[in-house]
Amino acid sequence: MTQTYSFPASNDLPEGPSAATRDAIRSVIAADLAPVRSRSLRERALLVGAAAIGAAALVAPLPSAPGLRPGFVRPLVVGLVAVLAATTTIVASFAPIGGRRLAARTKLLLAAALVTAWSFYVVSIAHAATAASMVERKAIGCGVRSLVAGLLLGGVAFRVFRHADPWAPRQSGALIGVAAGCVTAAGVGVGCASSDLGHLLVGHALGLPLLALVGVLAARRRLQP
Amino acid sequence: MPAHAIDVDEAGCLAYFYNLTGVQDVLVALAGKVYPRRAVMSNELLEPIMRRYVGGELRAFDELYARVAPRVLGYLLSMTRDRVWAEDLCQTTFFKLHRGREGWIPGAPVIPWVMAIARNTFYDDAQRARRARVRVTSTGDVPDLPDLDLADMSEQPSAELTEIVARAMDALPVLQREALALTTLGGLTHRDAAAALDTTEMAVKLRVHRAYEALRAALHTRRRSR
To answer: Could A225 and B71 be called an inter-chain contact, meaning their C-beta atoms sit closer than 8 Å?
Structure first.
C-alpha cells in the first residue's frame, strides 16, 4: 500500500545563513581584504628544499675548515639524501598524491619510521673504522647544533605551509619536526669525528623526537587555518 | 513552485515534508527518490573563484560565499541542531577561511578545504562549550516523542515528524551523522566528503549507508510501536 504526497519541488540552492550573518561576515572580510600570495606547491617545495640545504650547511663544516680530515664523502652523501628525503616528506604532508593526501595515521607511521631508520643508521656507524673524521665535538655540542638548526628549518617549513592543513595539523607538525631533525643531524654528522654510540645517539639522533614534539605543539596554531 | 506527486513506500516508513532545514533531504534520500538535484558545486568552478579571492577581489568572495555558505550552514545545522549556534559557527568558519586563505594551495580542491575548516570549527566549539545535544521544553524537561499516525499523514503536523527524524539523526554515531550531513545535506560528492573528512571514499559510502539504515530502522520502529 502506498500513500501519495505532494510537495513543492525546488532546484534552488539550500537556504543559506541569514542576511545578518552574511553582512557581518562580509563587513569583516571587506575591511581586511588585502591580496595575499598563495604560493604554488612547486614554489613551496623549492623554498623548503633551499632551507633544508641551508640548514644542513649551517651545521656541517666546510671542507676547508681547520681540523677537517678527509673521509667525509659518505656522510655528505647521507646528508644530501636526507635533504632530498626531508623535502619530499614535508611537501607530501600537504600535497595530494594520486588524488589523496597522506592520512593522519600514515604521517605518524612515516615519522616513526624516519626516527627508527635514522637511529639504526646512527647505530650502524658507531665504532665504525670509517666513521666521519672531522672535528672532535662533545655530544651536547652536536645535539644543540642539530636542534637549533632543526628549529630554524622547521620554522621555515611551518611558515611556508602556514594554515595549509585543516585535516591533521599535529601529524604534519610531527613529520616536519622529524624531517628537519634528520636533515640537521645528517649535516652535523658530516663534520663530527665521534664514533661513540652514546655520542651519536644523544648528539645525532635525540633531536628527531624532540623536534617532532615541538612540531606537534606548534602545529594547531601555525598549520591549521 | 511546481508540485511533484511522489509515492511513499509505507514499508520503508517515509513521509515528505518541505521547508524543514536538513530533514527534507534526509527523508527524500531515504525514499530513494530522485529529488530535483540542486546545483552541483564543482571544484573546477570554485578554484578560479578562490584564486581571485586570494588575490584580493571582494566580488570573488561574494561568489564563493554564495556557493559555499549554504552547504557549510547545512552541515553545521545537522551537527548542532541549533540555528543560532550554526550561524555563529558559520561566521567563525569564514573568518578562519579568510585568515588562512594563503594556506590554500592553488589547484587544490576548495570544497574539502572549506568543509574541513567548518568541521574543525564545530568540534573546537563543541568541545569548548560542551553543549547539551538534547533539546528541552520550556520547563526544562526532555519532551517525549509524539505518536505518529502514518495512516493519516497529511494531517500530521510536520514538526512532529521533524522531531522524530531529528532525534534519530542525533542518535547516530557522530561519524555517520557527519558523513550524512556532508553528502545529503551539504551536497558534497562522496569523494569531496572523503577529502573533507580525511578518509576514503569507501568509508564515507559505508557510513552514509549505515546512517540511512539506522534512520529507516528508527522510523520503522516508531511506526510499529503505535
So the answer is: no
Does residue A65 sit at the B interface (CB-CB below 8 Å)?
A: no
Instruction: Give A25's contacts in chain B (Cβ within 8 Å).
Output: 65, 90-91, 94-95
Q: Give residue B144's pLDDT band: very low, low, confident or very high (50, 70, 90).
A: very low
Q: Name the percent of chain A lying above pLDDT 70.
A: 82
Do the beta carbons of residue B205 and residue B2 sit within 8 Å?
no
Distance CA A84, CA A106 (A): 19
Mean pLDDT value across chain B:
73
Grid coordinates given for B197: 573528512
Please tell me the distance from the alpha carbon of residue A90 to that of residue A200, in angstroms, as a whole number: 25
What is the DSSP code (8-state) at residue B151? G
What SS3 class is residue A5? strand
Tell whether A70 is within 8 A of chain B (Cβ): no
pLDDT digits (tens, 9 = 90+) for A106-147: 899 999 999 998 988 888 877 654 444 455 667 888 899 999
ipTM of predicted complex: 0.83
For residue A130, give the 3-state DSSP assignment: coil
Q: Is A98 on the interface with B (CB under 8 A)?
A: no
